[in-house]
Amino acid sequence: MLAGCIASGDNKHVLHYDSGERLGALVQRSSFDHSLLTEARKAGAEVIEGERVTNVEFDQQAVVVSTDKGQYRSDVVIGAGGTHDLVAKKSGLNPGWKPDHVVLSYVVEHEFPETVMDDYFTTKRRLFFHLGFKGNDGYGWVFPKERHLNVGFGALSSTNSNLKQVFLDYVKFCQDLRIVPPFSVSKMQAALIPMRRILPRVWRARCMLVGDAAGFINPINSEGIQYAIESAEIAARVTSKMVRSRDFSNSNCLEYQNACMAQFGRRLNGLRFLSKMILKHSTLVIKSAENDPILKDLALKMLQNAGNVAENKRKLINRFIRNLVVNTVQKKH
Ligand SMILES: Cc1cc2nc3c(=O)[nH]c(=O)nc-3n(C[C@H](O)[C@H](O)[C@H](O)COP(=O)(O)OP(=O)(O)OC[C@H]3O[C@@H](n4cnc5c(N)ncnc54)[C@H](O)[C@@H]3O)c2cc1C
Questions:
Q1: N or C: which end of the chain has fewer CB within 10 A?
Q2: pTM for the whole structure
């Protein structure tokens, strides 16, 4: 994908990115997940499909995982069940997400002929983000893939009780603007994304939580795949060490949490304030960046999670405040 727009919720202020540089990559989730599974099999994992985990119990010697088809006894369990992970619940690490920790998102994916996709999104596959659509504390997105269009809207579930209607309005809004081709939303999906909090503790004896189960999500752009993979790699390394040494004491699992926080967790926590600030003042931020190439570039970098994120965050906040002050002073004179 070689072009994109970050826009205010009413589409009146738009930051256009079209330098010819690759802005990111979009894939079909099913084929991406399938390729991960193939890699896991190649690496020697035994994959058991078609079984639902129904219970997880811990004792001094082992973890017992029950499914709708059987039972498994193991030295260690890794909770990788996403937002509603049962391991997180049964281990007592997460009794349930609070409404202001989760974003509720609605999404539809529709297939179109490639020629229609080219007409609407060009061969560069121009994508769109609309921040603060209809005053909601969230954003809508239009992600054009090769032949599939993915349109969604997500916001804190605590802020609006009718986000489904906001999503439907967003699709219509994009169609009225002719940003997306006409289609009717027949099958939509809803999902919770735990993007406002990493669990204070992501381990207990013989147990580690990875990915969404732990709340490892970037609060700026809702990306979690990278952290699911990174945390899983760390959990695999720690598990392998425990199994080799037959030492399942707490200190090994604590090492998992420390490594995750050092590698990406502290950075994600540090983005929460910025995420709130951008969503609260989305129109002001975009308006300000429209006339400021430096701020515009910083906004893209934050969305791409590119470069030195902590440094870019600091620069973006400073630049935004500076622009606000300059505008206020200019208005007074
Ligand atoms: C609408 C939407 C758009 C997103 N867009 C992006 C994006 O563009 N980029 C990005 O990086 N991230 C995106 N994310 C976030 C991303 O999907 C997650 O962060 C990522 O999938 C987390 O991976 P995971 O393995 O922790 O959990 P999941 O991908 O949710 O996988 C959990 C798996 O566990 C299985 N499972 C759960 N419970 C049980 C059970 N009891 N028994 C057996 N199996 C079980 C589930 O079926 C599932 O296969 C998006 C999320 C949503 C909802």
A1: C
A2: 0.95
